[in-house]
Design goal:
Layout lengths: L1 H16 L12 E6 L6 H4 L3 H8 L2 E7 L6 H10 L3 H4 L5 E4 L4 E4 L15 H7 L4 E4 L15 E3 L7 H13 L9 E6 L3 H7 L4 H24 L7 E5 L5 E2 L5 E3 L9 E5 L3 E6 L3 H9 L5 E5 L18 E5 L4 E3 L9 E2 L13 E4 L7 E7 L3 H9 L25 H31 L4 H16 L1
Parallel strand pairs: 1-7, 1-8, 2-18, 5-6, 5-7, 10-15
Antiparallel strand pairs: 2-17, 3-4, 8-17, 9-16, 11-12, 12-14, 13-14
Helix pairs in contact: 1-12, 3-9, 7-9
Bound molecules: 2-acetamido-2-deoxy-beta-D-glucopyranose (7 copies) and zinc ion (ZN).
One 2-acetamido-2-deoxy-beta-D-glucopyranose binds next to helix 9.
């Protein structure tokens, strides 16, 4: 703690002294990169030399508190809107809309009605006159509010990271006909894919997948350097959610509790969404007592902290499995060795955030941030007026080079520093007044006399 305070004191001096480098003419381009399913503690468990190099020159947020449910589409849309799932309307990988009677699946996602409750940054940034790009980010090929990003490519799992990156850098550079984009979002599906197939506890499989992810981060840095973009753009590297280890020993079978005739299933695991056919209370009672590792909620009783209630696409009953448990209807077959979607307060569900570029501090590290805070941060970096959102700039301010930041150790360090200076001044004053009253004399005697003189003052 003391060390931290001393460091805070030193950093304070540095931060106060070295703010000049951020004097820029207008905002810099911003690149947002997501590596799907990058659980925060992979950073400690596996060597990531390139990612390490990236955040050592910038900032690292060790854990992001993401939004419920901790699935890919809800969280990717939260990153670019700053909204909880209940407010942006992309609530799960499988949805039913009771107003239009339509069904949503991640492989059939381009109907604009699903996305139109919010506006992603690649669209609002165009209102500030910027060109934008979205490479396979969920929603990037959907016409939202009649628009798409200036450049985008529809999802294609066969396109390599290098190809996606090559197109992104070309769009950022621009050409004679078209200026470079100011905001670009880039999506990559690892380490999520490997995490699902082998489970996050399989060190062999995860080490291999994360080595490739780290090589892609290396590629990103060298590509930006080659094109003269490195040091002239801000880069955010983050993810949507983590991953939990599942097991065939941890299955919850709904058919054991309730006849499938009694409900319509919209989504299954680890957060089930269902519509009772008749007698909702009775259906709820059955499900509520079904399994000790599954919690049932009537829609109106879903806890506030999940921000997962105020939307017509949330079904009358939801079931939430405990970490590492899988909900199935029947049978003993485990669908995946790794899964996510669980309660967003679980550390295993949290991703991380690394950022580098002229607007960020260097070598700064902090333990946590809300993922909805990333949207107002990006709007700030781009000087784009944010849409109404659920984030704040308070959390992210400390990451920035040109913001004063009320870091607690830093404040304590500054207070200690001020007290030291004040005591020093007091001491000097007292020595000087002694000198004046007693006149010049040998230094050694001064101390002896001092003690005598001081005693009455102490009483
Ligand atoms: C501060 O920044 C300005 C503009 O970039 C530059 O001209 C000036 O030399 C800098 N001053 C110091 C002391 O670094
Ligand atoms: C895709 O979803 C739309 C509604 O959003 C629906 O009309 C259409 O039938 C679906 N297509 C497939 C192949 O499921
Ligand atoms: C969307 O675009 C179409 C044609 O491009 C136009 O007819 C329609 O009015 C637009 N809708 C909105 C809401 O701007
Ligand atoms: C851009 O993407 C296309 C595929 O759509 C690919 O063939 C091409 O190589 C990519 N461009 C670069 C510069 O990587
Ligand atoms: C872990 O993953 C490897 C593939 O990388 C696989 O060969 C091995 O069987 C897996 N181990 C377990 C215990 O699942
Ligand atoms: C469940 O379904 C069965 C068969 O359709 C029916 O007899 C029973 O009343 C239903 N129970 C509830 C709680 O809906
Ligand atoms: C989130 O933001 C939206 C848009 O401003 C707002 O309607 C909603 O009430 C907010 N949610 C919470 C929990 O504050
Ligand atoms: Zn994901």
């Amino acid at each position: 703690m003391l060390l931290k305070i001393v460091l805070g004191f030193l950093c304070g001096i540095r931060a106060l002294a070295a703010d000049n480098n951020t004097a820029q003419e207008g905002p810099l381009p911003l690149l947002l990169v997501s590596f799907d399913g990058f659980r925060a503690d992979y950073l400690q468990r596996f060597p990531m030399p390139n990612l390490n190099l990236l955040y050592s020159q910038g900032v690292l947020v060790e854990q992001l508190t993401n939004v419920f449910i901790t699935k890919t589409f809800p969280n990717h849309y939260s990153l670019v809107t700053g909204l909880y799932a209940e407010s942006h309307g992309i609530l799960a990988s499988n949805m039913y809309d009771p107003v239009s009677h339509k069904y949503f699946h991640t492989y059939n996602d381009t109907d604009p009605m699903w996305w139109s409750q919010a506006r992603p940054l690649w669209i609002t940034a165009q209102d500030s006159g910027y060109k934008t790009a979205a490479m396979m980010w969920p929603g990037s090929d959907v016409t939202i509010g009649n628009r798409t990003a200036t450049h985008f490519l529809p999802y294609d799992s066969t396109m390599t990271f290098q190809q996606r990156l090559g197109n992104i850098t070309n769009w950022m550079l621009g050409n004679k006909k078209e200026p470079g984009v100011m905001f670009a979002a880039l999506y990559w599906e690892e380490p999520d894919r490997t995490g699902h197939i082998f489970g996050p506890d399989n060190t062999t499989a995860m080490a291999k997948a994360l080595k490739e992810v780290d090589e892609n981060i290396g590629l990103l840095m060298s590509e930006l350097k080659q094109n003269g973009l490195w040091g002239r753009v801000n880069v955010l590297v983050t993810s949507d959610h983590g991953m939990a280890q599942c097991s065939a020993e941890r299955l919850i079978q709904l058919d054991d509790c309730l006849d499938p005739e009694n409900y319509t299933l919209v989504d299954l695991t680890p957060v089930a969404a269902l519509i009772p056919r008749k007698d909702p209370e009775l259906v709820f009672e059955r499900l509520n007592k079904c399994h000790k590792h599954m919690t049932a909620y009537l829609k109106k009783a879903i806890p506030d902290r999940l921000h997962y209630r105020n939307n017509e696409r949330i079904q009358p009953i939801i079931l939430i499995a405990d970490e590492g448990w899988t909900i199935v209807q029947r049978g003993n077959k485990l669908p995946r060795l790794g899964d996510h979607g669980y309660d967003n307060s679980l550390p295993s569900m949290h991703p991380f955030l690394a950022a580098v570029g002229p607007s960020f501090r260097q070598g700064y590290r902090t333990s946590s941030l809300q993922s909805v805070d990333i949207y107002p941060l990006m709007c700030h970096l781009l000087s784009v007026p944010p849409q109404p959102n659920n984030g704040t700039m308070n959390g992210a301010r400390c990451l920035l080079a040109d913001e004063s930041c009320w870091d607690v150790p830093l404040v304590v360090g500054l207070v200690v520093c001020v007290l030291l200076v004040l005591s020093f001044i007091t001491l000097v004053f007292r020595l000087m007044s002694h000198r004046r009253s007693l006149g010049p004399r040998p230094f050694q005697r001064l101390q002896i006399d001092d003690d005598d003189d001081d005693d009455p003052l102490l009483e």
